[in-house]
Amino acid sequence: MSRAHALLPPAWRGTSRAAAWRRARGRRVASAGLLLIAGLLGWGALQGRAAASRTIVVAARDLPAGHVMLPGDLRERRWPSGASLAGALPSAAAQGSVTTGVIAAGEPVTASRVRTSRHWPGVRAGDVVVSVPIADPTLTGLLRTGDHIDVLGATGPVGADLPVLLVTAPTSSRTDDTAGAVWVSAPSSVASRIAAETAMSRTAGTQLSVVLRPAA
Question: Quick one: which of 73, 77, 80, 129 has its CA closest to 99?
Answer without folding.
Answer: 73
